[in-house]
């Protein structure tokens, strides 16, 4: 057999959206070219449309009752399983981060390890955040007064340009507290987000709890901010100040919670995240109950 006959073409991966536990192409049929930092072609990624965003919100809403109804301990177990699966595909994520040029090759492994550790850290909070964020309140009268946190609902998240550690750091606190989410991945480096979606799809996470859209942030984010079935918006990855203001104004139409960290472009994702993101998308329910005689 000649040398020419033994040469084979590699099977290129098709990067699709992740909606409702499935991997559809954009209904618009659009895609865009993703290149490395050196300008080399890496892949074509789907360019999500408004219709894709609506489908993702519908999937997140459908998944919300079951995910909220799961025990906090069970949600923590599932996040830990995601960490296990991510650890098992470490080499693939290292290669994708290095190809994208987001980190130097020698640093990509550190990023993946930190993402795994971040998932484990948030998993540990699953059955503890209620004790920290809730309280028993002293009242003047024969009553028990108890405040407890509950998830806000469907959260739209614009992920930062750090395509793995930053992505994990904005998704994990949203879902471990019982919310579901629609994530707009990094437009510049979207490939690790879809690989992460593959991890989520094989980690016992119910379909629809996390939905990942790739494409133009300027196109998708305002529609998610204006969507009346979205309860909160995380604008961490919106670098354009005018776009962030427009999203905040759209979110005000149905009184969405909005998280827009200052100077988010300079966020150190390796730093201790604290509990700020855990409590950002929680509502507090206070119950009065008469004291027994």
Please estimate the helix content.
40-55%
Average pLDDT, rounded to a whole number, is 91
Strand order of the largest sheet: 7-6-5-8-9
Instruction: Please state roughly what percent of the residues sit in beta strands, choosing from under 5%, 5-15%, 15-25%, 25-35%, 35-45% or over 45%.
Output: 15-25%
Here the CATH topology equals Aldehyde Dehydrogenase, Chain A, domain 1
Provide the CATH superfamily: Aldehyde Dehydrogenase, Chain A, domain 1
Order of helices and strands: HEEHHHHHEEEHEHEHEHEHE
Domain Aldehyde dehydrogenase: 29-258
Protein name: Aldehyde dehydrogenase
Keywords: Oxidoreductase
Pfam family, one: Aldedh
Describe this protein's structure.
- This protein has a single domain (14-290), classed as Aldehyde Dehydrogenase, Chain A, domain 1.
- It is an alpha/beta fold and 293 residues long.
- The chain contains eleven helices and ten strands.
- Helix 2 (50-69) crosses helix 9 and helix 4 (90-100) crosses helix 5.
- The strands form three sheets. It has a five-stranded parallel β-sheet, with helices on both faces. It has a three-stranded antiparallel β-sheet with strand order 3-4-10. A two-stranded antiparallel ribbon has the order 1-2.
- The longest helix has 21 residues, at 105-125.
- It has helices spanning 3-6, 50-69, 72-88, 90-100, 105-125, 129-133, 165-176, 191-201, 217-226, 241-251, 276-280, and strands at 31-35, 41-46, 135-136, 143-151, 154-158, 180-184, 210-213, 232-234, 257-259, 282-290.
- The model has no long low-confidence stretch (mean pLDDT 91).
